[in-house]
Design brief:
The complex is a heterodimer of chains A (about 110) and B (about 120). Chain A has about 110 residues and is mostly beta strands. Chain A has no helices and 11 strands. In chain A, a hairpin with a 6-residue loop joins β9 and β10. Chain B has about 120 residues and is an all-beta fold. Chain B is built from no helices and 11 strands. In chain B, the strands form 2 sheets. In chain B, strands 2, 4, 5, 6, 9, 10 and 11 form a 7-stranded mixed sheet that branches. In chain B, strands 1-3-8-7 form a 4-stranded antiparallel sheet, with no helix packed on it. Chain B is globular and about 40 Å long. The chains are: A mainly beta (about 110), B mainly beta (about 120). The interface between A and B is medium-sized, with 25 and 29 residues.
């Protein structure tokens, strides 16, 4: 069963605007969440993470928000750039272990 | 600092054969995890090793096995290959022993396995 869900397979955003990628999870034991970016024929690249003791974490243009009561997290990219075009994966972990549960990914296209 | 390296990058095998994939983690990292990526199932966790011990195993048949050496390098083996084993196999390394800020998991480029 898919415990981490990314319900939007694709998203298109204009350059300079905000990109918001969403992720829902079902397992209340998840306590660490990560976002990865992936280009074709490459491994995922780590972007940003958040522990369940926080509700927000920022790193440059990337901000992750966690809403534990809704079992929802989102990744905000501001401003979006054409180089951000890639597939974004949300991942979650139980007991901060390395056995990550991944969503199916959202393909982001940032147009000039 | 060199990233996670995986060899070979591409591999073609036939059904019934076995295959061994190799992963060298980032220098200083002691945890290595393996994942399988397929179009249908997405990224699925296979197993994790820390200090030569398997700490966690995903829901895969016993044909999938792995090991870690004292230098933290890891290998995974798939025996009696099936067509459905065709996938991108990704290795990830971490400092260990658990996820935290500045201790995330970093992925290699993967090995593309095709089973004919």
């Amino acid at each position: 069963d898919q415990q981490v869900k990314q319900n939007s397979p694709s998203l298109s955003v204009q350059e300079g605007r905000i990109s918001i990628l969403n992720c829902d999870y079902t397992n209340s034991m998840f306590d660490y969440f990560l976002w990865y970016k992936k280009y074709p024929a490459e491994g995922p690249t780590f972007l940003i993470s958040i522990s369940s003791i926080k509700d927000k974490n920022e790193d440059g243009r990337f901000t992750v928000f966690l809403n534990k009561s809704a079992k929802h997290l989102s990744l905000h990219i501001v401003p979006s750039q054409p180089g951000d075009s890639a597939v974004y994966f949300c991942a979650a972990s139980v007991n901060s272990g390395y056995a990550l549960n991944f969503g199916k990914g959202t393909s982001l296209l940032v147009t000039p | 600092k060199a990233g996670v390296t995986q060899t070979p990058r591409y591999l073609i095998k036939t059904r019934g054969q076995q295959v061994t994939l190799s992963c060298s983690p980032i220098s200083g990292h002691r945890s290595v995890s393996w994942y399988q990526q397929t179009p249908g199932q997405g990224l699925q966790f296979l197993f994790e090793y820390f200090s030569e011990t398997q700490r966690n195993k995903g829901n895969f048949p016993g044909r999938f096995s792995g090991r870690q050496f004292s230098n933290s390098r890891s290998e995974m083996n798939v025996s009696t290959l099936e067509l459905g084993d065709s996938a991108l196999y990704l290795c990830a390394s971490s400092l260990g022993p658990g996820l935290a800020e500045l201790n995330e998991q970093f992925f290699g480029p993967g090995t593309r396995l095709t089973v004919l």
